[in-house]
Amino acid sequence: MLEDLVAEIVNHPPSRLNIRVIGIAAAAALGGFMFGFDTAVINGAVDALTDQFSLGPGLSGFAVSSALLGCAAGAWFAAPIANRFGRVPVMLVAALLFLISSIGSGLAFGVTDLIIWRVIGGLGVGAASVIAPAYIAEVSPASVRGRLGSLQQLAIVLGIFVALLSDALLAELAGGAAETLWFGLEAWRWMFLAEVIPAVVYGACAFRLPESPRFLVARGDVDRAAQVLHDFTGADQINLKIEEIRQTLAHEKTQKLGDLRGGLLGLKPVVWLGILLSMFQQFVGINVIFYYSTTLWRSVGFDESNALLITVITSVTNIVVTIVAIMLVDRVGRRPMLLVGSAGMAISLGLMAIAFSQATEVVAADGSTSVSLAQPWSTVALISANAFVVAFGATWGPLVWVLLGEMFPNNIRAWALAVAAAAQWLSNFFVSTTFPVFSNIGLSFAYGFYAFFALLSLVFVYFRIPETKGLELEAMTDDMALTRKSARRVAHKR
User: Fold this and answer.
1) pTM above threshold 0.85
2) Is 441 helix (H, G, I), strand (E, B) or coil?
């Protein structure tokens, strides 16, 4: 299917486009792979480390979501570092942080240092989450920017899949995540150590990437910028393109956080758009499926092996629908796909809430409690969970990253993307940390909460999201968002 994607991009170019821009976009998107792997690898380990370190629900939830605090900080500080030193150096630092985190987490002595190592990895994830979409947007021709930008989400879901698959294989080899595997280390520790391999590959690929032409123009290195535009982006009128970039950067000098200030509650409208998109993407609860799905399916009657298998199948589904989204995004547009996704998520989450309202509590011999779903509700929950992944993976998953990479004007892009990404990670932290608490109240309550925000996201997109399909980055403005009228105006200009 990846070959079909490449063929689709190459066979439908509106202007000269060579395979090299796909290559550098894919290499940059490896940051998304690390993003997915690092955040999902905890899935297969959470039960084992909870038992080993004797964690309660609150501390268990924090151990899982602690990396997200690092993600928020990494996203925040990546912007000024990228503006000063370039996009590629930030990718290299992120790769190093992934490497350190994987080794430290795998050899953790207790929950405290595990949390520290997870936060360090989160710094890398946060930095990669900002830099990859910005870099891809800056090197991509406008007509295929949606498809190339969606490579970030494809890499994320591939990272999730590989993490979950490696978790399942390691647990199977050891006879359980808590069992000893190699060199006296439990399988859950090897789940973290496995991240060393993709971290090294990401660093090696990032080392060979050209710098963003927009960063080079901002630094006055016009010759190198022209070379990158010619060799990688397929631009025909190089001098005109550089002049367009110069005009949008003319008043930039040095980007700073204060540049985001505007009339609407202290921030420019387009910045609020990015923040709200990020928050809605997380408040629908997608990461609950990937962080806690093994625990969830064990709670409704599946053993550890089958629960891990179901989680892997769900991840494969996510990959397939993300590829579908990449095929459609530059044809259908961002806005219609988001609307369909919001509707699908609201319905599937609502069905999950109804299914779990039929659950009964089971008390084990050791006094622990779990929930059990009788037929047909267990089947309804399983189908609805995968339908939710389809709706999210084909729309909100990839499209939010596409929009965050392209929607901000050049003069505020780095900081605006950093703020939006930080909001996303803080929202992710809230959802991931509160899920164990919400599930103690009742899984029906938890999924009802997420269904409400999915429905709210439908209203938000309908009234506030403009269409950016086909627009050059230089055409983005501070006030192009937040009204349907502006959406029609942008479409008319196009």
Assistant:
1) no
2) helix
